[in-house]
Amino acid sequence: METKNNGPRVIISGGGTGGHIFPAVSIANAVKELRPDAEILFVGAEGRMEMQRVPDAGYRIIGLPVAGFDRKHIWKNFAVIVKLLRSQWKARRIVKEFRPQVAVGVGGYASGPTLKVAGMMGVPTLIQEQNSYAGVTNKLLAQKACKICVAYGGMEKFFPADKIIMTGNPVRQNLLANKPEREEAVASFGFNPEKKTILILGGSLGARTINQTLIAALDTIKAHSDVQFIWQTGKIYIQQIKDAITTATGEAVRNPRIPAIPNLYVTDFIKDMASAYAAADLVISRAGAGSISEFCLLNKPVILVPSPNVAEDHQTKNALALVDKKAAIYVKDVDAMKHLVSTALATVADDDKLKTLSENIATLALPDSATIIAKEVLKLIDKP
Ligand SMILES: CC(=O)N[C@H]1[C@@H](OP(=O)(O)OP(=O)(O)OC[C@H]2O[C@@H](n3ccc(=O)[nH]c3=O)[C@H](O)[C@@H]2O)O[C@H](CO)[C@@H](O)[C@@H]1O
């Protein structure tokens, strides 16, 4: 693991979901923009999403054999402890060989061993917390961290107040710069720019309730041929959704397009989110913190369906911060089956409503987060 030049050497660690990975990528991009000579190494968890998405973004990553604790069945954690010890040992070797001048943790369990070991070896550390509720790994790393970058107020309940910096969540630069034109973006999905388009997102992993709601609404979707639907299902749900569509239509699905339902595009994961956002007149989404930052910065009208299955119900808190300012429409997970599709169809047909939602959400955007964080990262290197 040789370093090629004398530029700053930065380790960025974390992952598990897009919510941790994409902020990490945008911090890396911002560091590179400020210091093109920087050497950046990612450290993630073997077998997790970052091992594919980080190289896709053009960065090197090494995986640790780390796994998450089973918080419900404590006795099942013997193997997890062994993996944690092996991960610490491997992280130690990585830090020794790469000799980072600073280590950045973005949450998710891979960042635990990496930042702990880096801190113990005298490397300054910075952590970034995306949510209004601090993740367990970040809480453990906070005592040793030099700086803690957050996106919500009131984080002193979790972290030492003197280390907190309000930066907002970093958003990938390619979503904001050189945005594609709407027409071109709609056409890239094989759709008609004259018609309205709804983008349905389940977060980086997909959302069961949203998917079930859409399956139940296939007839309604087909009947509304004046509206086009781009549906991101998540990797684990795609096969069952294809099967359900085949059962409903009697035709095999050649995803992304469904011959029997020409106004529907279905995919497990969208790589080109810039085009997906540019194509969308309305978004339906879970309320992950990173997604919300993107909607704010891109001024997207959105219907939020927060996941009820996350720590301290933090997605509902994320969503209500917007809903309280009339900057998003709120549909509860339990009400999705009944109201989600009808609300979306009524909203997308109402240009005044779309305009108001767009104007209101724009006021909540926190721009330049990645650059602000990158500057803090580089300052830690210069610290005596
Ligand atoms: C179930 C769960 O634990 N969710 C958490 C996870 O959400 P999740 O991993 O879904 O993360 P976010 O909603 O924050 O961000 C999703 C990211 O994935 C990207 N994307 C999404 C779909 C796609 O097809 N292509 C694509 O690139 C989005 O553009 C966005 O950058 O991390 C968030 C940030 O810590 C938390 O707030 C969420 O509660």
Automatic annotation (TrEMBL):
UDP-N-acetyl-alpha-D-glucosamine binds at residues 17-19, 131, 172, 204, 270, 315. GO terms for cellular component: plasma membrane. Pathway: Cell wall biogenesis; peptidoglycan biosynthesis. It comes from the Bacteria. Gene3D superfamilies: Glycogen Phosphorylase B. InterPro entries: GlcNAc_MurG (IPR006009), Glyco_trans_28_C (IPR007235), GlycoTrans_28_N (IPR004276). It catalyses: di-trans,octa-cis-undecaprenyl diphospho-N-acetyl-alpha-D-muramoyl-L-alanyl-D-glutamyl-meso-2,6-diaminopimeloyl-D-alanyl-D-alanine + UDP-N-acetyl-alpha-D-glucosamine = di-trans,octa-cis-undecaprenyl diphospho-[N-acetyl-alpha-D-glucosaminyl-(1->4)]-N-acetyl-alpha-D-muramoyl-L-alanyl-D-glutamyl-meso-2,6-diaminopimeloyl-D-alanyl-D-alanine + UDP + H(+). Keywords: Cell cycle, Cell division, Cell membrane, Cell shape, Cell wall biogenesis/degradation, Glycosyltransferase, Membrane, Peptidoglycan synthesis, Transferase. One of its GO terms (biological process) is cell division. It is found in: Cell membrane. Cell wall formation. Catalyzes the transfer of a GlcNAc subunit on undecaprenyl-pyrophosphoryl-MurNAc-pentapeptide (lipid intermediate I) to form undecaprenyl-pyrophosphoryl-MurNAc-(pentapeptide)GlcNAc (lipid intermediate II). This is UDP-N-acetylglucosamine--N-acetylmuramyl-(pentapeptide) pyrophosphoryl-undecaprenol N-acetylglucosamine transferase. It comes from Bacteroides stercorirosoris. The gene is murG.
